[in-house]
Amino acid sequence: MKHSIMALSAALMLGGVASAQKVAFEEYNLENGLHVILHNDPSAPTIITSVMYHVGAKDEQPNRTGFAHFFEHLLFEGTENIKRGDWMNIVTSNGGVNNANTTEDRTYYYEVFPSNNLELGLWMEAERMMHPVINQIGVNTQNEVVKEEKRLRYDNSPYGQLIPEVKRNMFKNHPYRWTTIGSMEHLDAAKLEEFQAFNKKFYIPNNAVLVVAGDFNKDQAKEWIQKYFGPIKKRPVIKRETFVEEPITKTIKATYEDANIQIPMVVTAYRTPSMKTRDARVLDMISTILSDGKSSRLYKKIVDDKKMALQIGAFSYSQEDYGTYIVYGLPQAPFTTADITKEIDEEIVKLQTELISEKELQKLENKYENQYVNNNASVEGIADNLATYYLLYGDVNLINTEIDIYRSITREEIRDIAKKYLNPNQRLLLDYVPSKDKAQN
């Protein structure tokens, strides 16, 4: 009886936290098509102004990859009213920070300022959208920056080609087959006019969402938004191609040699549906069961108990059109990658044939409740979530309701989704090994 009362008390506390964390927002459109979302939070004297554009690596041409990521850098070069090199100085001298990031599906820019600098943040993002200066000196400068980033993150990093190799083998038609950072040869070959055309096509008000979050006066914010973003002209609607991948019906086998590693890695990867689907969320839970933390099934069995691997993990690489579920392991001698694969497969078969326990399901729900609270614990996180749920999911209120989807997932669904997507004939089996030249040395 005592345990039941404690469990009820914990459930009520979690419910209270979730309810208290509900995010209030207002959304509307400007005449030029820019979507605006306002979230007022006076708990701290800060403000975030952010713009997310619906352009990512998948919007590039096969012979001009890397453009979206390149623009993440290029659009800090300056505008007609912000001199080259002054962007960061303006932000820092006014007590702010800023950044940007790019995925296959979108590009996100933001500034965080003391709340008395809302107008400045709005003006700067409007300048980026309306008056960017895209010239040869900026392109040349950022080309070198991107090349150095590629060398650090991919070329010279141990296992740095894991995601690129998975993508290259998993997708044959979809632009997800290339990396976000793209090809340096493509960027070198591109003419200035191509960069200018890319900007003119994608970095437009009717392909973006503006989020203002933090401590601000709503009426004043609307006035400034209209003042700075209202005059920007609407551009032609972007026509997007639909890319369909044929189902994988036979194991794809591949090998990649990496000069930066000494220990081989085995990788199994499965193509999964859009992150907007319920199935993708069930796969998130499956990933948590298998590899989230030292108490997860794969880690406990293969690393702790049997000491067959130095590291084991799994994660869902979620995207707007398709996803990829990736499982990887580093064997510990005398065990091999084949031994690790066999153990991983056994655990997946268990998920496909046996229901997880009620206790495991409750543990999962608790983790996702905690994750939900943490994701909305800062004004920066809320702004990013609001933009993402609007632009990629088409439903801003998922910031409040997506947790209900996770809460409703059943043990039977977990079993059935594992059975639907995680089969040997539906996957890539990648042997990621030290280069032969290095092995001989």
TrEMBL record:
Give UniProt keywords alphabetically. Answer: Hydrolase, Metalloprotease, Protease, Signal, Zinc
The domain of life is Bacteria
Which chain positions lie within coiled-coil regions?
Answer: none
Q: Name one GO biological process term.
A: proteolysis
Q: Which Pfam families match?
A: Peptidase_M16, Peptidase_M16_C
Say if the entry is tagged with keyword Zinc: yes
The GO terms this record gives for MF are:
metal ion binding; metallopeptidase activity
* Peptidase M16 N-terminal domain span: 36-179
Task: Give the signal peptide range.
Answer: 1-20
| Residue stretches making up the Peptidase M16 C-terminal domain | 192-366
Asked whether the UniProt record includes Protein biosynthesis among its keywords, one would answer: no
Sequence similarity? Belongs to the peptidase M16 family.
- The identity of this protein, by name, is Peptidase M16
Organism of this sequence:
Flavobacterium psychrotolerans
